[in-house]
Design goal:
Helices cover 27% and strands 30% of the residues. By secondary structure, it is an alpha+beta fold. The protein has a domain of 313 residues: Lipocalin (Beta Barrel). The strands form six sheets. A four-stranded antiparallel beta sheet has the order 3-22-21-20. A four-stranded antiparallel beta sheet has the order 4-5-6-7. The chain starts with a helix and ends in a 5-residue tail after the last strand. Bound molecules: calcium ion (CA). Calcium ion (CA) binds next to strand 12, strand 16 and strand 20. Calcium ion binds next to strand 12, strand 16 and strand 20.
Length: 479
Amino acid sequence: MFLLLSLCMCGLLLRGDAQDRAALWRGNDRSGRCQYTFTVPSPAETSCPQTGGPEVEGLKARLSMLEVLVAQMTAGATGGPQRAGARPQPELQEALNRAVGEKNLLQGEKERLEQEVGELQRRMEEMRRETERLRNRPCPPQTPMVPPSPSLQGGGLMRPAGGSSLMSHLMTRPNRQGDSSSLRDSAWQYGSPGFQELKAEVTEVPAPDASEDNTGCGELVSVGEPVTHRKADNIEGKYGVWMQDPEGVSPYGSNMVWRIDTIGADVRKLFGYEDMEQLSKGFPSKVLLLPEQVESTGATVYRGSLYYQRRRSRTLIRYDLASESVAARRDLPHAGFHGQYPYSWGGYTDIDLAVDEQGLWAVYSTSKAKGAIVISQLDPHSLEVKKSWETNIRKNSVANSFIICGKLYTVASYTAPDTIINYMYDTESSQGKAVNIPFRNKHRYNSMIDYNLAQRKLFAWDNFHMVSYDIKLGRPQAN
Ligand code: CA
């Protein structure tokens, strides 16, 4: 076998030297086997397939077998156990190294945590011993009990012994009138410094707003968001006036809602709704045709009468709702009318009537006042002017006005969604001042704003929408 192999290999090695001679020899070796010897011809001559004939083909087949044998022998000589062990896989080695490293890290972490546990156990033991020691100490003498102040007794708030309760301190807030002077707590002087700090914090809590008390008159503090009650159905209702009688009389009462749409050539219809719900539904229970045309949005109702400015005149009319007839008429002396001194939005809002806790008012201007707002208190029965005040704010510089508790308030803009009430004039002191109270024109065209003292609300007509605003009144702020 080896001999055959060596012969074949010799033949292959000789192949290069014999490339220029294409030849084949055949003979028997010493053991009688058939022996072939060949040389390869030059590349040009190998193209001839007949060169070696069947003998060459047989030689090729045998050579292939030999090559397979050589490969198997080589593998047998170098393979087996050597193949598995001699090629260590680097991935496995790397993973092994990593696992070992992680194990070492975890071991270190475990040792550290064990140390911490030991430390905590040691501290717990110390604290337990300290607690035990304190329990075994004799109690200090008790602080004498401080009697609760009379005001707290009256309120049913009892202070526990020692005055050390957090709740008891928080309860000593100023009373609803904002006066904390009567709530001196004598226990504070016995308190620890920590409690003194708490007292300072409590004192800083702002006093409750006096506006929480809505039973009496006060200065306007704030105006709420508008609430829409009804939207007018057609163009006649883009501007208008709606109102309730704060001191209503039979047969209508104070729940009756009155409404005038003020766009049109002949504004005389007065709609009456039994209550706000009927207004919201749009079902009037009464429609009155007034004897004189109405000018603009300045009308009001008071004690069973509708008060309004007659169209294109300074004439005021008191229309009695029960008898459905004019009860009084009178010119408002020197009052501008029909576009002479309107509010900033125009609309012939020269004369604006208003009702508050003190009665009936007219807001207007005169040539003598040169466009400044004049306020006149009127006799509700005869329409005579009882007293007048001249302010220093121009009527056409503000969007509208209303009177609460004898104080006139003006609204800066009729279109800005977020505007302010910018001025207040107090008829009691005959003094005016700038104010800044947020006011919302939700629908961006507010053509009427008036105060209703029974509802403690502002009524307004904002671009087809009949809206109302909650208000808060408070104490005048010290200046
Ligand atoms: Ca008004």
